[in-house]
Amino acid sequence: MRRETEAALSTLLTPDQTQVVFGEGNPDAPLMLVGEAPGPQEDREGRPFVGKSGQLLERVLTELGLDRSRDVWISNVVKVWPTRRQGRSLRTRPPNAAERQASWPFFEREVRLIRPKALLLLGGTAAKAVLGRSAVRMRDIRGKWLETPFGIPALVTYHPSYILRMQGMRPDEAERLLAEFRADVRAAAERAGLLAPIHTETTDAGAE
């Protein structure tokens, strides 16, 4: 499927883009992590989540005892870097309708081939696409399990890039977001059967 996806979506590439970026990880993984689209580093390397956002994601996975190549499948809804020129520089922009529509059939097939037990949707754009909604409010859906057209439960959380942006603007807020992000990743891993639920032990005050 990788070759078919790359061949079909290469028509979307402009001279400013390098390649189609397919998913990676364990194709038998019970948990699939879904982002919006590749960024500049992903475009260069041909792998999803290898930039700063990917480094934050991998750090959280490692802290939880998970390995990105063994335990999860990581992908994006849109398979090419959505970019625009600003002077001599290239900037990332939201995916346009053509990119979303061309990528969706291949993303849909990807999900059905992987057949994960749970989806973790990273950010509002990925959530809108997978849930089939025209708009979402993160504060209303973050951390909640929702139904998807695939019949696979999905948990919505922040995109790592949002946490990184907040670290430079509001460090205290970023710490809260990171804690919630870590909790969401753990919840998704538990739902997928990768981690055992944490049970809080209680003691009988009268037993002493």
Automatic annotation (TrEMBL):
Residues 22-182 form the Uracil-DNA glycosylase-like domain. InterPro entries: UDG_Type-4/5, Ura-DNA_glyco_family4, Uracil-DNA_glycosylase-like, Uracil-DNA_glycosylase-like_sf. GO terms for biological process: DNA repair. Coiled coil: none annotated. The keyword Protein biosynthesis does not apply. Keywords: 4Fe-4S, DNA damage, DNA repair, Hydrolase, Iron, Iron-sulfur, Metal-binding. Gene3D superfamilies: Uracil-DNA glycosylase-like domain (3.40.470.10). One of its GO terms (molecular function) is 4 iron, 4 sulfur cluster binding. Belongs to the uracil-DNA glycosylase (UDG) superfamily. Type 4 (UDGa) family. This is Type-4 uracil-DNA glycosylase. It comes from Ardenticatena maritima. The lineage of its organism: Bacteria, Bacillati, Chloroflexota, Ardenticatenia, Ardenticatenales.
